[in-house]
Amino acid sequence: MTRQVVLDTETTGLEPAAGHRIIEIGCVELVDRRPTRRTFHRYLNPDRAVEVGALEVHGIDDDFLAEQPRFADIVDEFLEFVSGAELVIHNADFDIEFINHELRLLGGPTRDIRTRCRVLDTLALARKMHPGQRNTLDALAKRYDVDNSKRELHGALLDAQILAEIYLAMTGGQASLLLDGDAERDDAEVVLAVRIERDGLVLPVVAATAAEEAAHHAFLEKIRSKCGGPTLWERVLGADEPRAPQAADIAAAPLASPPPTARPEATKRPSAAPDAGPGLFDGAAEPALAPA
């Protein structure tokens, strides 16, 4: 079993060294590349003001945060949720630096989250896959056709859900997606690959006519004259092409037509349930770990 936690944070500013703190943590659990509906989501009281520039990004104000728990109040619950998992984070250095800053302020035994978790940075991955292109979360959502229409402002849990879909798309997608978010229902699976039964299926074999073979050999001869020798596949296979048909062969060859063959009935592609939404997390129940 491979367990991953897609994580995002929102903060009071850009630099923990300048005294900035985490004000929101959002996590989404994936097990074997499937969302499990387990999430961790907390708003946090940073004991300081949110910078104007940060407020414009996430819209989380001081009055709201004053009523939230502090990082010290939720640290055990947070560490229990993420321990042993691979953290999937966009621009991981930023979030890891802030998490480690919070851990060091507490003075507990865990001072670096990487002692409990592996870390995968999707920004570094995207830069390798799409060099020279914009690789922000919004740009990747557009590139991989992930719905981010609800992202008017940044939010840790929403961004983690969007990143989870982007990460799965970037790394090859899934054989099946639980579009209604219900990982416990066996009948919720939408099969994207359909196996076609070929028993009793007879496919017609249409042989080339003498005229077509002559045209083929003429084209090969043109390739040989350009490259100054046998073609690449002749050198690899070590076999010569059959001789070109002669004019007498072409004149005597009847027009070939394949025997009539019954057309195999098309296999229908299973479709999602009518009520299924477009995203991995649509229709999911309340988070397993709800905000305090």
Q: Could you describe the 3D structure shown?
A:
The chain folds into two domains: 3-191, Ribonuclease H-like superfamily/Ribonuclease H (Nucleotidyltransferase, domain 5), CATH 3.30.420; 195-268, no CATH class. 34% of the residues lie in helices and 14% in strands. It has ten helices and seven strands. The strands form two sheets. It has a five-stranded mixed beta sheet. Strands 6-7 form a two-stranded antiparallel sheet. Strand 4 (86-89), helix 4 and strand 5 (118-121) form a beta-alpha-beta unit. The longest helix is centred in the last third of the chain and has 18 residues, at 210-227.
User: DSSP helix count?
Assistant: 10
CATH architecture of the largest domain: 2-Layer Sandwich
| Secondary-structure class | alpha/beta
Strand coverage percent:
5-15%
pLDDT < 50 stretches: 174-192, 261-278, 283-292
| Residue-averaged pLDDT | 80
The run of helices and strands is EEEHHHEHEHHHEEHHH
Shape: elongated
Number of domain modules: 2
Give the C-alpha Rg. 30 Å
- Quaternary status: single chain
- The count of strands amounts to 7
Report how far apart the termini are: 30 Å
Strand order of the largest sheet: 3-2-1-4-5
The level-1 CATH class of the largest domain: Alpha Beta
Name the helicity range.
25-40%
**Main beta sheet, described?**
5 strands, mixed
Q: Tell me the CATH superfamily of the largest domain.
A: Ribonuclease H-like superfamily/Ribonuclease H
Annotated CATH topology of the largest domain: Nucleotidyltransferase, domain 5
